[in-house]
Write the C-alpha cells for this entry.
Amino acid sequence: MGGKVLHLTKPTKLSIKNSNLVLSFDEQDVKVTLKDMSVLVFDTTLFSISGKVLELFAKNNIAVLFVDESHTPNSILTPYHQHSTMSEVAYAQISITKEFKGRVWQQIVHHKLTNQANVLKFFQKDDGYKKLINLAQNVQTADKNQDEAQGARLYWRELFDSKTFRREQGSQDIINSMLNYTYALIRATITREVSANGMLSVFGIWHKNRYNAFALADDLMEVFRPFCDIYVKLLLDKKYKNKVKLDTEIKRDLVKLLLFECVDINGGKSNLLKSMEIFVKEYKKVMMGSSFKSLTFPTIHVEFFKDECL
C-alpha cells in the first residue's frame, strides 16, 4: 500500500487525469499517484470533488477524513468489500467466542497500559510509571477489574500535571483538541486496514454500540493511542506552549506522526502507518484460527522521541 498522507487546507478542486489524482489550487495543478496514497485529510470544507475521484479513492484503499465547520474530523470514507474472501472473513467475525474476545481485550488493555507507562517514564514520571506497569501486569480476561479505567485516571493526571484535566472527546481546549485530531487520524487508518483485510468494522471485540459503525477499529486502535499522547505532549511542551486553539500549523505537525518510525513491532522498527497494517493483519490471522500466541503488539520506540522529532 502507499505511504503518502495528504493534508489539504486550501480551497481545492480534485479530478482524475490518466489515473492520477490532480489537485488544482492557487492557479496550479499538482499530480499525485493514487497508489502512493494512504490517507487524505480534507482540513477545509471548501473543495469540489467528482464521483469518479471518490470511486478511485475506494478502489485504491485510501482513507479519507472530512471535517465540519469547526475543522473537527467528523466522517470517514473507507473502501467497502475490497477483499476476495469477504464472506468467509465476516462469518469468522460473527463466530468468535466470548472467551476469544476476553483474551484479546485483555492483551489490548495490557499493551495499552504498558505503552502509557512508557510514556510516563519518558517524561520522568517514575511513580506513575510503576503504578501503570503494575496494573498492566495484572489485567484479567476481559479486563474484569477495569484496569484500563483505573489506569486512565492516573495516566492523564500524571501526564499533564493536572488534577483537573479531563479527557473528553468533544472538548475544545488545546490538549483535548490535539488528542482528538490525532486519534481521528489513527481511527481512519485502522478502519482502512480493517476493510482492506475483508473485515467488517461494525463487529467489535469490546466496543459495542448500535450507533457505532467502527467498533472493531475503536478496539484495535487502543494500543496506538499512547503514540499520539507522547507526541502531543512534546509539541505542547516544546513548540506550542502559548497556543490555546488548534490551527493549521499544529494540524500539519500532527499529521506527520503517521510517518514517524516510532514503533517496535514484529522484531523491527516501523512507522505508524505500516505498523497499523501489520497489526490488523496479525489480528485477522489469529481471528481466522492461527495461534493466539502469534498476535504481536506495537510498542513505543521511545528513543525516536528523544531525538529531535519536532
Summary: The chain has eleven helices and eleven strands.
